[in-house]
């Protein structure tokens, strides 16, 4: 059957009339920060292509959960081809920005990037003396990988004599280390170690010489010198052209980890891990036509935010809500996914897998098989209770009961775009579900049922009570079938969008034809005139 034919087009009476109160919901997307927040201030240049510079610093800090303020020292016109122009910010205005942030915002760590002039370096050193911070990370940005000069030779003395002695760590790449040491040739790891030691003698507490550009190295090797030992930090070299901004990102990650309270070596290792993983996840990213592209700092959020819009929740999908039951499937000798396929072919508009006594491995396999079927019909698939299974299989959402994982926690784990439903028996529970960020409520049992024993029924009155007060759309559940589904529709409650059924579909020989019969009842039942008027009041 064609996908469209399965979707109810015109729903009986005003059953479909939506009072969309979704817009009134409070946002659940904010990170919960209370009290002091780890804070990095980046003092660097803007990269219009946003792969490096200030933009990389803010993204890297954000990805690691650290607040990042920014003092801009220069604006560059830059892309994946190279640097087309540089517009330095006047020194006095760099000073003004520094004062604004440092005098007010409880900065933990300052990270520096492009410092285009001696004047800017002097201003920075002066302000750092005036407003002490916990740590200073200096990435001595001199030349972009494209070969363009970002900070000329005239700044070298200021770097070496004024800024380095204040730094907790300096992080030059091999080329920068060489320039800072007056042209010292760096070709091998032994050379990197010697360079690190020479730079250490200029006064910083630690030195990291980055080997991203080390010729003929199959690994990505950085050398860390802490004043006593030279540590060789070896990572996998990712085969990609998308390495623009690795240096800025690494230094910002070190700063972010220090701000969170990590010791120096731990901060460097965490930073290196982050860069490697981000490059690996961004290998095939195609942005720009030049030789060195940006990478994705937010690769971890991709599953949360980059879902196709099609998976967003639509209340009308609740119309004929089929909930599986492993006991029934066993009894009739069919697999979960076969049952799901039959229900969809009969007209089910959303599926929930409710499997109570099942091994996790079997559940994951069943969810994967069901998801493939659901996707091919454009029908959302939810998992009952098991958030881990939903995450593992990337299903469209989860349905939880009052004693399952709290809805707020589920929302945090699943992100804003997944569907979350909650079983509610009272208006208070329904209100809480709305506050916690649920998308819909499932209310019942309406009629007595064998599927859930010892489950007190709420009756049609209870159902009415909840839906009249609820801000969420939802379904009725419990003992509903072909014989009594009309009673639910006839209630004419605007946000009661459909019926959820278990045994009426799955405890039957022919799931498809039972589903079709139920769909017929839902589509043909008319809402009595007086109920319609009541709903529109
Ligand atoms: N292809 C790669 N695979 C894995 N790690 C890499 C790769 N390229 C660079 N790195 C790592 O990224 C970090 C930054 O080093 P790199 O030498 O690239 O800095 P940089 O030249 O200052 O970067 P940029 O100037 O592009 O911001 C180091 O830890 C380095 O080992
Ligand atoms: C603005 C800016 N800062 C740093 C770098 C180094 O990658 C760059 N290319 N651009
Ligand atoms: Mg660099």
UniProtKB/TrEMBL annotation:
Keywords: ATP-binding, Chloroplast, Kinase, Magnesium, Metal-binding, Multifunctional enzyme, Nucleotide-binding, Plastid, Thiamine biosynthesis, Transferase, Transit peptide. Its cofactor is Mg(2+). One of its GO terms (molecular function) is phosphomethylpyrimidine kinase activity. Belongs to the thiamine-phosphate synthase family. This is Uncharacterized protein. It comes from the Eukaryota. It comes from Amborella trichopoda. It is found in: Plastid, Chloroplast. Its main location: plastid. Pathway: Cofactor biosynthesis; thiamine diphosphate biosynthesis; thiamine phosphate from 4-amino-2-methyl-5-diphosphomethylpyrimidine and 4-methyl-5-(2-phosphoethyl)-thiazole: step 1/1; Cofactor biosynthesis; thiamine diphosphate biosynthesis; 4-amino-2-methyl-5-diphosphomethylpyrimidine from 5-amino-1-(5-phospho-D-ribosyl)imidazole: step 2/3. The lineage of its organism: Eukaryota, Viridiplantae, Streptophyta, Embryophyta, Tracheophyta. GO terms for biological process: thiamine biosynthetic process; thiamine diphosphate biosynthetic process. Residues 47-291 form the Pyridoxamine kinase/Phosphomethylpyrimidine kinase domain. Gene3D superfamilies: 3.40.1190.20, Aldolase class I. Essential for thiamine biosynthesis. Bifunctional enzyme that catalyzes the phosphorylation of hydroxymethylpyrimidine phosphate (HMP-P) to HMP-PP and condenses 4-methyl-5-(beta-hydroxyethyl)thiazole monophosphate (THZ-P) and 2-methyl-4-amino-5-hydroxymethyl pyrimidine pyrophosphate (HMP-PP) to form thiamine monophosphate (TMP). Residues 320-505 form the Thiamine phosphate synthase/TenI domain. Transmembrane segments: none annotated. HAMAP family: TMP_synthase. GO terms for cellular component: chloroplast. It catalyses: 4-amino-5-hydroxymethyl-2-methylpyrimidine + ATP = 4-amino-2-methyl-5-(phosphooxymethyl)pyrimidine + ADP + H(+); 4-methyl-5-(2-phosphooxyethyl)-thiazole + 4-amino-2-methyl-5-(diphosphooxymethyl)pyrimidine + H(+) = thiamine phosphate + diphosphate; 2-[(2R,5Z)-2-carboxy-4-methylthiazol-5(2H)-ylidene]ethyl phosphate + 4-amino-2-methyl-5-(diphosphooxymethyl)pyrimidine + 2 H(+) = thiamine phosphate + CO2 + diphosphate; 2-(2-carboxy-4-methylthiazol-5-yl)ethyl phosphate + 4-amino-2-methyl-5-(diphosphooxymethyl)pyrimidine + 2 H(+) = thiamine phosphate + CO2 + diphosphate.
